[in-house]
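1st attempt posting a full record on here, be nice pls
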Amino acid sequence: MRSKIIATGRYIPERLVTNEDLSNMFDTSDEWIKDRTGIEQRYYIKDEMGASDMAFNACENVFNEGIVKREDIDFIIFATLSPDHTFPGSGCFLQGKLGLADVPSMDIRNQCTGFLYSLRMGDLLIKSGDYKRVLIAGAEVHSTGLDFSNNGRDVTVLFGDGAGVVVLGPCEDNEGGFLSFALHSDGTHAKDLWLDCPGSRYTPSRINKTMIDEGRHFPKMNGRRVFSHAVKKMPEVLMEALESSGTDLKELDLIVPHQANKRINEKFAEMLGISFGKVYSNIERYGNTTAASIPIALDELRRQGRLKKGDMIGLVAFGSGFTWAASIVKWV
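the predicted structure (as tokens):
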């Protein structure tokens, strides 16, 4: 039995931060950011708020629609690189906030591909027959971990906060739902996009003043290497998923990629030989929300009426690890 998406929801924090706002914090400009990334604005949390808090708000939007009842959820998967705390996982915090006593929960730490990896895990749980309603959350609080100085500006301009959730269930008629998945990783590039500290490998403590003074507690990225691998691996993995599903590229009605950089997604479309109009983009408004970007996009599309029964949708992402993944879903 295939699985399908039966509900979606999202939550965007209230603090709007424009490119002009960032230009008042360090040396940058609206033109520079838009030219290199396509981003015009993003949202940050205003007060103390964790990834599980935003995911909870996104879940409330789902339950308020009445499509899925809170008590029907029987498994929780939480994708994030910015958990509320080092441990326990944000999935446990979300489970507690939802009041779903005894419902199993787990975190998946695959950064920008975390949501697609989580979809695959949820898909397998549904196929096992053991679970009927799997809640998958992608949520990130980036703003509290960025370097708002000239040293960190190339990374800082990219990221925003947000949360998106979906609920998976069985596709009884097997006429739609998830048709295929393709997942990959290559750890030889792990340090091309990473956060060094704090780290359990360091002794006698995971972080110290020297590390902080050196800025090792801020994310670092080899932008050129990320770009070159992303524009190569994303078309490859989408084509792999298409072949596995028995679907032709021309049959796709829409592609929803991870929103890392608009220039990456434009090049991705060029490599596939398709119009960028077939590739959904909302990075202009939200920036890179990592594990939240695809579920946020799916909720937007559904509420706009742009996901119709029978539509063939391609989901694809590339990110830290390096990891990359794709899925083909027939919307039902």
